[in-house]
Design goal:
This protein has about 150 residues and is α/β, with parallel strands linked by helices. The chain has six helices and five strands. The longest helix is centred in the middle third of the chain and has 29 residues.
Length: about 150
């Protein structure tokens, strides 16, 4: 294993997998990347000749600020891990975004936390961790912190 990817949605639960992933990467002598998927699609670059240029430009700038904020949040978490930690931002759906990072960066292992839904809520809402483990070309380690109680259905 040479490259470990840990994902976060910036929630308390989402961040729970970062420290164990950093420890695992250190023990394996592997590179660690902390990543987040922005579900909003990137807007097209504003066209100066279009009648809606000013609106498109504001939207573009807001998106740039969003992405910069996401990167800054990831870098804060990376700094807490110590050592050299990369950050990654993908766009689109959570699973497709993670799989894009896996392909682009040569990831060998994905680590993520899970809410541990069960019963009806799992059937209705699904599980990103479960679907990712089915679709991923690399192993997925799912971190469940026993101190965090899953939401009730």
């Amino acid at each position: 294993m040479k490259h470990v990817l840990v994902t976060t949605d910036f929630s308390e639960l989402g961040d729970q997998a970062i420290a164990p992933a950093a420890d695992l990467a250190r023990r394996l002598g592997a590179q660690l990347t902390i990543a987040h998927v922005v579900t909003a699609e990137k807007p097209p670059a504003p066209d100066a000749n279009a009648p809606y240029f000013k609106v498109a430009q504001r939207l573009w700038q807001a998106d740039q600020e969003l992405e910069a904020g996401v990167k800054a949040s990831l870098e804060e978490r990376a700094a807490q891990c110590g050592g050299e930690v990369q950050v990654g931002v993908a766009r689109g759906g959570a699973i497709d975004g993670i799989l894009e990072l896996v392909r682009e960066r040569g990831i060998d292992l994905i680590v993520m936390s899970s809410q541990g839904r069960s019963g009806l809520s799992r059937i209705l809402l699904g599980s990103v961790a479960e679907e990712l483990s089915r679709r991923s070309p690399v192993p997925v380690l799912i971190w469940k912190n026993p101190a965090v109680q899953p939401p009730q259905a």
